[in-house]
Give the backbone structure.
Amino acid sequence: MKFVDEFRAPEAIAKASEEVRKLADPERHYRFMEVCGGHTHAIYRFGVKDLLPPNIELVHGPGCPVCVLPMGRIDDGLSMTDDPSVIFTAFGDMMRVPGANGSPLQHKARGKDIRIVYSPADALKLAEKNPDRHVMFFAIGFETTAPSTALTLIRARQEGIRNFSVFSNHVTIIPAIRAILDSPDMRIDAFIGPGHVSTVIGCRPYEWIAKNEGKPIVVSGFEPVDILRGIAMLLKQLGQGEAKVENQYTRVVPWEGNKAALKAIGEVFELRPYFEWRGMGFISQSSLRIREAYAEWDAEKRFSVPGVRVTDPKAAQCGEVLKGVLKPAQCKLFGNECTPEHPIGALMVSSEGSCAAYYNYEHRKAAALSGLTPA
């Protein structure tokens, strides 16, 4: 398969990993943050970490939108189901994310009408088929998924579908990176830039990272060869004393981004002054809210949203893991009280969460090698 097999071929992987070894200075310790949760998953799935020299440390960033959503926003969305006419819809990876009063699936078990959809357009179709009900779509994601939500709202207004609304929890990647760089306990040498987000926003928005912070950033794809080549590009920059933005993922990511997608986002959304991130507090200009022109389809304006603020369970260390301060296995609950079957935190729920990725690949592999459980 074009653009897959050639990026997983053993000989190509071996060649890319050898290039990394040659470029890495054995006298130096490197800390590279992969911002995107998709990269974290791929790194564990393909064993990329095992192909790197020991002085290259990969740090997992806050690039999983389900993981960064605070528990209070989940409770806010679920509060709308107190109205029996409401059908709550969301992506599948949201269904087991715990709020203070339970997850969407637990609310479904209590009799609430909660359904999985695969796109906001599916939620809109559900509203068309159920004119006597109100369908609320729990929108989540970085700039990657915001265009599909925006286009769905545009269509809802054009077609006059008024029994549909969106609870917007879309977040933006640049303020999150800025917050990480401003954190006093975080030392990052360079960034593996997010591939999915960059298909929408392009590469230009990252230029301040290189120019103002002196940190190289390489936008990378998600196959093992992509990631290894991206790391090699970072090592070259650091070896030459450079800091710039490079695009390894040129087969998918345009430098200027997707102009049609950006136009749709701009028409429907505007930046919120502040938005709370799990483990990172309130970050300015880091989330998208629905513009006044689409207020009729804004769930936060159609319903009385309590604006709940809930702290994570004290023993869970989701915030430290999200910021890259701790590795998943260093959390006190990891693999014991908190597992994919019984998650305490969102990082163990989402397929892009670093804890779930680490548990499903590294933790299971280690357990199998020790004879505790099959791989």
In short: The chain is about 40% helix and 15% strand. Residues 152 and 158 are 10 Å apart (CA to CA). Residues 367-375 have pLDDT under 50 and may be disordered.
